[in-house]
Every structure is written in C-alpha cells, then in structure tokens.
C-alpha cells in the first residue's frame, strides 16, 4: 500500500521500526478504555503482530496505519479500519494520537479525512462507523465534523472505575 498523503500529515503502513511506539501506546493505561484493552501487551506479541501486518484488509479484516508528519518517518498516532466486512461494505474506524500535546492541532482531522477518502473511494465501502464514549467530546466533534451521525446509544456499555458509561454509535454512509 502506498502512503496516503495530506497537506501536513500522511498515513503509512506499520513497519518493524514501529515496535517501541506501538508498545508504549498499547501499554498506556490512560487510553485502554478507548482501545478496549484489558491487559498489557508484550514486545513479543507486538513483534508478532507487526510480522503479520503485511496481510491485506481482506485477509486481516483490519487496516492499521501510522500517522506521521510529512517529511518524517516517526509515528505520532494510529488510525484503524477494523471489523472490515467486505460483503456489507462497512468497517469501524478509530484513531488515537499518542501525545496529548499533539491533539487538537489538526492531525486527527487530516488523518481521518485521508482514511475516509481511502475507505469510500479505494475500498468502495458503503459505510463507516465509530464507537465513542459520550464523554469524549473531542472525538464526537472530530467525527461529526466529517458528517458522522449519531445512530444510537448503547446504555451502560463501558465499565470504568466501577461505573458504567454509555457509548454512542456514529455512522457515515457514503453518498456515492
């Protein structure tokens, strides 16, 4: 897969050199609720994952890309298509920017726009969806700015700190 390039950022396939970045990101307990992670990942497991990252989305049912600043190889975040369903032409989409100081600077917006375009025009998907905690105002704003619409709320869906929270389902349906 070639890179998907925007004005300031680009998306690229994961490489073996991303091991430490993914290790830090996947083991950051502050984002486990967003990534639905329950336990830490070892470098060994992440290395195995990266060794299989060459599988295409039709085989793996997932596409995970690194978000990088133009002119740099360093990954700043990840954006994913997951639960890829070729028959029904849909996939879930998620994004995480590692450093909180890098958030709200347009990186997520540019990355999301690039992946939406790729999903609808190259993969010929009919719809994308995102599962977002109702308290995650920044993500709700990001996705609704691209036309994602609230499709429903899953009550008591996420348990964190022994309290249940609602999760919203947002959908974007292709107009093609």
From TrEMBL:
Transmembrane segments: none
Gene3D superfamilies in the cross-refs: 3.40.630.30
UniProt GO MF annotations: acyltransferase activity, transferring groups other than amino-acyl groups
Protein keywords: Transferase
Domain N-acetyltransferase span(s) in chain numbering: 9-170
The keyword Kinase belongs to this UniProt entry's keyword annotation: no
InterPro entries with a match to the protein in the record: Acyl_CoA_acyltransferase (IPR016181), GNAT_dom (IPR000182)
Keyword Transferase: yes
Annotated protein name in UniProt: N-acetyltransferase
């Amino acid at each position: 897969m070639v890179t998907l390039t925007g004005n300031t950022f680009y998306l690229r396939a994961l490489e073996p050199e991303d091991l430490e970045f993914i290790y830090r990101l996947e083991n950051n307990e502050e984002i486990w609720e967003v990534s639905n992670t329950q336990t830490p990942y070892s470098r060994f497991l992440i290395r195995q994952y990266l060794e299989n990252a060459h599988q295409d989305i039709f085989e793996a049912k997932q596409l995970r890309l690194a978000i990088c600043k133009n002119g740099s190889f360093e990954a700043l975040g990840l954006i994913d298509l997951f639960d890829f369903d070729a028959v029904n032409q849909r996939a879930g989409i998620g994004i995480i920017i590692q450093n909180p100081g890098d958030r709200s600077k347009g990186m997520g917006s540019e990355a999301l726009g690039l992946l939406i375009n790729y999903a609808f025009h190259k993969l010929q998907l009919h719809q994308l969806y995102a599962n977002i905690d109702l308290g995650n105002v920044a993500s709700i704003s990001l996705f609704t700015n691209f036309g994602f619409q609230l499709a429903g709320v899953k009550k008591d869906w996420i348990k964190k700190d022994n309290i249940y929270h609602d999760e919203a389902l947002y959908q974007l349906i292709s107009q093609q």
